[in-house]
Amino acid sequence: MFAATEAAKEIIWLKRLFCDITKLKCIPVLYVDNSAFVKLAQNPEFHHRTKHIDVKYFFVHEKVVDRNIAISRISTEHQLADVMTKPLDRMRLTFLCDKMGLV
Questions:
Q1: How many CB atoms lie within 10 A of CB 58?
Q2: Domain count of the chain?
Q3: Does the pLDDT value for residue 53 go beyond 70?
Q4: What crossing angle do the helices spanning 2-21 and 55-65 adopt, rounded to 10°?
Q5: Assigned domain for 16 exists
Q6: What is the spatial distance between Cα 30 and Cα 50, in angstroms, rounded to a whole number?
Q7: pTM, whole model, 2 decimals?
Q8: What burial class does residue 44 get, using C-beta atoms within 10 Å of its C-beta: 0-12 exposed, 13-18 middle, 19+ buried?
Q9: Fewer beta carbons under 10 A from the terminal one: N or C of the chain?
C-alpha cells in the first residue's frame, strides 16, 4: 500500500509535467499486484477488517475518484517493478528486462 501511494504521487507529478509539454490523451494507469488494494481503491466500502487502513489509502482512492489516475491489477509474474525491488533469479530477471526493453 505504501509503494502504491508513492507511485501514485510520482504518476501525478509526471502527469503535470507532461501536461505542461503536451496534451495527454488518456488517464495514467497504476498497476498493482494486490487485488484487495485495487478493490478498495475503486470501491471503498467500510468493513470491520478495513478499519486499520492508513490515510495513504485514501489518497490513492481520491485520485482514482477524481480520475487523475486509474488503478488496475497485474499478476505478480508480470509486475515490472520487481526488477527494482526484489532479488530475482536469472530467468525471471531476463524475462522482466525483456518486457521493459532492456538488453
A1: 14
A2: 1
A3: no
A4: 40
A5: yes
A6: 21
A7: 0.76
A8: middle
A9: C
Domain hosting residue 9, numbered range: 2-75
Give the pLDDT mean for 55-62: 79
Residue 38 pLDDT: 86
Does residue 34 fall inside a structural domain?
yes
Residue 4 and residue 37 in contact, taking contact as beta carbons nearer than 8 Å: yes
Write down the residue that cell numbers 527494482 correspond to: 84
Q: Indicate whether 36 pLDDT > 90.
A: no
SS3 76: helix
Query: Coil, helix or strand for 32?
Result: strand
**Whole-angstrom Cα distance, residue 16 to residue 47?**
34
Q: For all residues of the chain together, what is the average pLDDT?
A: 85
Specify if 84 maps to a domain.
no
Sign, CA dihedral 16-17-19-25, equals: negative
